[in-house]
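Let's practice the habit of predicting before peeking. Look at the sequence and jot down your guess about where helices and strands might fall. Then scroll down.
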Amino acid sequence: MTNIPTPHIWLPYTQMRNALPPLRARKTTGSRIVLDDGRELIDAVSSWWTACHGYNHPHIVAAMERQLRDMPHVMFGGLIHEPAEQLAARLANVLPKGLEHVFFSDSGSVAVEVAMKMAVQFWTNQGDRDRTKFVSFQGGYHGDTLAAMSVCDPEEGMHALFKGYLPEQFVLDLPRDAESADKFREVLRSNRDQIAGIVIEPLVQCAGGMKIHTPETLRLVASAAADANVLLICDEVAVNFCRAGTMFAIEQAGIVPDIACLGKALTGGAIGLAATVATADVFNAFLSDDAQAALMHGPTFMGNPLACAAANASMDLFETEPRLAQVAVIESQLRRELEPLSGVAGVTDIRVKGAIGAIEVDELHSLDWLKTEFVNAGVWLRPFGNVIYTMPPFVITEGELSIITSAIAEILPRWSVRARR
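Done guessing? Here is the structure:
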């Protein structure tokens, strides 16, 4: 038996035997989720970091309604359509120069999967079949599919259970100092004949605990990849589209990876869509008279016209509404209202980057109690690991954001006292 009122639903990341009964959402609007019982919750996490423009933005809704009447879906094998053509061109135009070949899929995890497949086949198509390994980093998270799991943190991440099943990769410390940088470069030097690519979340390791690194670290990784002649894959899925303070996080380091993965906020949170974007050097390695040299991947709903219409509408909003300015305001408010909590017992660090605010604690106990208290305060917030965090919609008002930070400020000390009784 479970506590879930609908017995046929299996929820993600949830022990179904003793989980709290889930709340039933009825509608969404702006920065709020409306429950069946009439309560409204301010969404502090943008529905897993997707609803950047807020919910039900009329421009996105109207675009999807038009597309729904014309053609909600058509296969992308042998057929193309205007929404996908327009979106691919717009992404190539807004990404750092050089990222220009767009492969669509339906989720961020699959976008990473495709990137890794591209990297391996890039070398295979040039006669090098030994480059099948990847370098990734402690604290990283890249998704729940097989290859993506293999480049996540194998110890602290949620995939340790699958050790022995997953391919083994080189999972290293981020090169934040001279010692870790030397070790990183040595692994690349010693194993370059096995390594297809490096996978990194630029600037913020989100699901790994909202861990922030500097543009200098990202530049070092990019430089080392070039020196070792291995491909660099930047997983922008969680931080793309202004979340880290620039349209794409890689802009802050001034680098152009060989492959970039996009997702989550790509459609403004309206529908699933992701993209793996490659440089001409990567794309050209698949051009051949040999049919087997083609990229053998094709998600059924890739390039879905309805999702592409939503993404194009989302791109319109990034062009016409002040998203980067809103993110800057959110960042300033988060610093101002969260940093005073550094003195609360149990708090070990407070981090803010763009529209991301994180409070790291020594041990995140009483998780169900915390979630319930936040709901009682009118906030939808989902702590995980040892982090209480917020990644609000960019359109959130100052007052709404203050409700979130005030709830954290009020609940955090009670959580701390509760732990030490």
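How did you do? The first helix runs from residue 46 to 49.
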